[in-house]
Amino acid sequence: MKISVIGTGYVGLVTGVCLSEVGHEITCLDIDSRKVERLNRSESPIYEPGLEDMMKKNIDAGRLDFTDSYETAMRGRDIVIIAVGTPQADDGSAELVYLNNACRSIAETMTNDMIVVTKSTVPVGTNEHVKNEIEKHHNGSYSVEVISNPEFLREGSAIHDTFNGDRIVVGGESEQAVEKVKSIFEPFGVPIIMTDLRSAEMIKYASNAFLATKISFINQLSNLCERIGANVESVAKGMGMDKRIGDKFLNAGVGYGGSCFPKDTSALSAIAQSVDYDLTIVDSVIATNEGQQRIIVDKIKKVFPDLENKRIAVLGLAFKPNTDDMRDAPSIKVVRELVDAGAEVYAYDPIASENARTYLPGATNYMDSVEEAIDGKDFAVIMTDWKEIKEYSPEDYAKSLTNPVVFDGRNCYGLKEIENTGLEYHSIGRPTVY
Ligand code: NAD
After folding, report:
1. Is 90 exceeded by the pLDDT of residue 395?
2. Which residue's CA is the nearest one to ligand 1's atom 38?
């Protein structure tokens, strides 16, 4: 089928590439012409394992191309998938300006009847608004059906997730449009759930809010564990073995970040407020997460009350491993607090340093390896559990740091691994090892 994908970010590009991989003819459009130029040179503008190779293969096969022209992308298309960003607006709700612009451009350039699929995460009721916006801005000669198809891929394993996801959600009011959109995703071999528009939109927010709740729950428990002398790692293991609870998303740490959980929990709370309902669980999840990002700084200040001129190694900047995404990464707040307290930060991240420069302008010295980051520094702080960082030997910290002290915001090491290494090791929800 001939399909256009609007927006070539993490979601749009992966979706376009994967749909071309299963044989569809895909045009990906972005208004950022520098991105489109890079894509036309077969270069991926984002880091995502396996993406660039699959992209090159499908460009060469003639099934995938890129444009910054709506006229080109809309010509003769049956289906258009919207995957533009929906960041957090100042009032906490989802910012729909990019979506509205995309609707207007679609309306002005469509050449036939069309199904518009919204993959971006959007508040309940937005797909009805998408239909109205497009109908309002075009001359009425073509019909528009809308489908909600929220995305569940995870950055860092996005290609794998597309072909091995737990479910694909297709929501709509027109049975024919739902069936047609279902058929384009069938080759992925993932279970497809069909529902109405509003339930589909809600499934995405409900899922992210539930996962965020698991994280904030275990983080609050980790704070309690520290106060009562329990080890949150053992507690989480014991809880997770109960299949009704499950062992995923029970890792205590400095809180969730990224481009989804913070904004989606906030948007869900705003959706509830718009209908005069207090979603107290989600509000508490958000507050807990914000507090959790302070915990590592409090731990540092307890050991080093004066941070003036301290030289600190920060290991990991991305909001999680295997991505270069810095949006709402907990490292941003932590690095800023350390710098505000007078410290010099020497940071290492395997791939997010370039993006980090935008989020932390002038605040950090960027190093090329863990060794270089910790060499001769006063102490180290771990912010992202990259494999490379987890595999770094605890003995080597003790050798390279001026004070052999590590604050681990991601519980990268087992406590037994630290014993007898000469390292003072502060982690989350577990006893300190001296
Ligand atoms: P992104 O910011 O990486 O990419 C969005 C792209 O859309 C950008 O390249 C931008 O230039 C382009 N764009 C903006 N306005 C446009 C317009 N009018 N026409 C054409 N292109 C336009 O965003 P993302 O991370 O891919 O997220 C997209 C959506 O998917 C969001 O709603 C997000 O919440 C949701 N989502 C993201 C993830 C994730 O892990 N990133 C997972 C699931 C769902």
Report:
1. yes
2. 11
pLDDT surpassing 90 at residue 361: no
Contact 7/23 with Cβ under 8 angstroms?
no
Please report, to the nearest 10 degrees, the dihedral formed by the alpha carbons of residues 56, 57, 61, 64 taken in order. Answer: -50
Instruction: Enter the ipTM.
Output: 0.99
pLDDT digits (tens, 9 = 90+) for 81-113: 999 999 999 999 999 999 999 999 999 999 999
Angle at 385 between CA 242 and CA 382, to 5 degrees: 120
For residues 18 and 125, membership in a common domain is answered with: yes
3-state helix, strand, coil in the chain (%, to 5): 45, 15, 40
- Answer whether 101 contacts ligand 1 (Cβ < 6 A): yes
Closest to 3 measured CA to CA, from 85, 75, 95? 75
Q: Is the CB of 95 under 6 A from ligand 1?
A: no
Task: Tell me which residue range forms the domain holding 158.
Answer: 2-195
- Residue 239 belongs to some domain of the structure: no
95's CB contacts (< 8 A; 6+ apart) are 86, 87, 88, 89
Listed residues 151, 170, 195: the one ending a domain: 195
In this prediction, residue 362 carries a pLDDT of 79
Residue 369 lies in a domain: yes
Q: What is the pLDDT of residue 348?
A: 97
Quote the number of domains for the chain: 2
Asked if 170 contacts 150 with a C-beta cutoff of 8 angstroms, the reply is no
Cβ contact 11:36 at 8 Å: no
- Known catalytic residues are 260
Q: Are residues 36 and 176 in the same domain?
A: yes
CATH number at residue 335: 3.40.50.720
**Residue 423: phi, psi to the nearest 5?**
-95, 140
Is the shortest distance between the CB of 81 and ligand 1 below 6 Å?
no
Token digits of residue 298:
């409090």
